[in-house]
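Team,

Forwarding the record for the chain on the shared tracking sheet. I've put the sequence and predicted structure together so nobody has to dig through attachments.
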Amino acid sequence: MSSLPVNASYNKLQAFVVAEVWQNSVTREHSLHAAQSFSPNQVICSFTAATTLSHPTYLTVQTTLHTHITLSPFYLQYINHSCAPNVFFDTKGMQLISLTAIQPGDELTYFYPSTEWDLQQPFNCHCGAKNCLKLIKSAAHFSPMQLKKYRLSNFILEQLKLHVRKKL
């Protein structure tokens, strides 16, 4: 375990080379936090598909229209959503990439619609970002203009192109 200071409302559950799993002692929710510094566009780690499903679940990342994967290493499942994300799942290169400078202890967050065309269930967002979208649905429910400011997986970019063509 690293010697990083931990906010009193969090308990550090597990530590890995690149990240630590923390649990909020009040809400019992898990989150993933950086164990080291990362520069923008740096590969944090590679990942693989632990399992492949034809439907979405709470813990999957969508890679094609009918392919949803659980992640290995397993601790990546603890990356929560934010409308101001600091990481991106590159599902083509199978790498987790930093979008911003990240310091030890920073929570790792990603924009769920960046990979999810078919999100299992919409949810109210409480990320606190200045530009919070409030209700998070799959990418199919956002306009290309809303998604333009986010880094999107190749799969989501392809789906957006297909749906724009259909409207023409």
